[in-house]
Amino acid sequence: MQRKIWKIRSGEPANEAHDELAAEEPLEIRVNGKAVSVTMRTPGDGADRPVHDAELAAGFLLSEGIITSPADLDRIEPCGRANAAGQDLNVLNVFLSASCTFDPKSLTRHVFASSSCGLCGKATIDAIHQQFAPVYAPAPVTADVLLGLPHTLRRAQATFARTGGLHAAGLFDRTGRLLVAREDIGRHNAVDKVIGHALQAGWTPDDHILLVSGRASFEIMQKALAARVPVVAAVSAPSSLAVDFASESGQTLVG
């Protein structure tokens, strides 16, 4: 998405130019037809849009404890209105398998979450601290691998290179090989996308590293724990609650 701007450099006259902006649109997530969340997110480009939104929805439901495995998902599809194909691409309906029970009252988040806050709308502090079992890294990660992760992730941030306005998250193996990377205007959404990708692909990242382009906050640690990721790294500093949460959850946290 391009907009006309004035570009100003020190000592030079202002020049009219065009700049590309990162997309931000609401996504309503429904479970079995019932709306459970609206989050501000960056949709994927072109054919990737429904794919990335489905990953986001799956990762969100995993981090909320509504689903725990791919077997809990029946299908994820856009609702039928708005575009030429009769589908509203900003509304997703997640249908759970018959074996997965869903109590809407168990989801204590209120309806709206902004792109900057993945925990906004939680009704109580107790509701934030989901009950996920501790996870432990089976083997240490070398410092050389950790130091190389930001550069590798940065090379995968194609939309950030054009706009400068997106966060990113990536799942790596212990050798530093990037397995999946996603971008979003909200860092928690980027995390939901990568853990949702892993969930839908049928693999558990219990021997992997999650890298986020922003700070390491409580919500990022909680989402990583829900996905069973033992090592979380961030290019920025961690918060005090993130450190406490990692210590209690057996996670390795690198800031």
Q: Please, could you describe this protein's structure?
A:
The protein is an alpha/beta fold. It contains 7 helices and 12 strands. The protein has helices at 48-63, 125-128, 143-155, 158-163, 187-201, 218-226, 240-249, and strands at 2-7, 15-20, 25-31, 34-41, 73-79, 88-96, 112-113, 167-172, 178-184, 209-212, 231-234, 252-254. The strands form 3 sheets. Strands 5-6-3-4-7 form a 5-stranded mixed beta sheet, covered by helices on one side. Strand 5 and strand 6 (88-96) form a beta hairpin.
Task: Compose a concise summary of this entry.
With 255 residues, this protein is of the alpha/beta class. The protein has helices spanning 48-63, 125-128, 143-155, 158-163, 187-201, 218-226, 240-249, and strands at residues 2-7, 15-20, 25-31, 34-41, 73-79, 88-96, 112-113, 167-172, 178-184, 209-212, 231-234, 252-254.
Draw up the topology in text:
Blueprint (H helix, E strand, L loop, with lengths): L1 E6 L7 E6 L4 E7 L2 E8 L6 H16 L9 E7 L8 E9 L15 E2 L11 H4 L14 H13 L2 H6 L3 E6 L5 E7 L2 H15 L7 E4 L5 H9 L4 E4 L5 H10 L2 E3 L1
Parallel strand pairs: 3-6, 4-7, 10-11, 11-12
Antiparallel strand pairs: 1-2, 3-4, 5-6, 8-9, 8-10
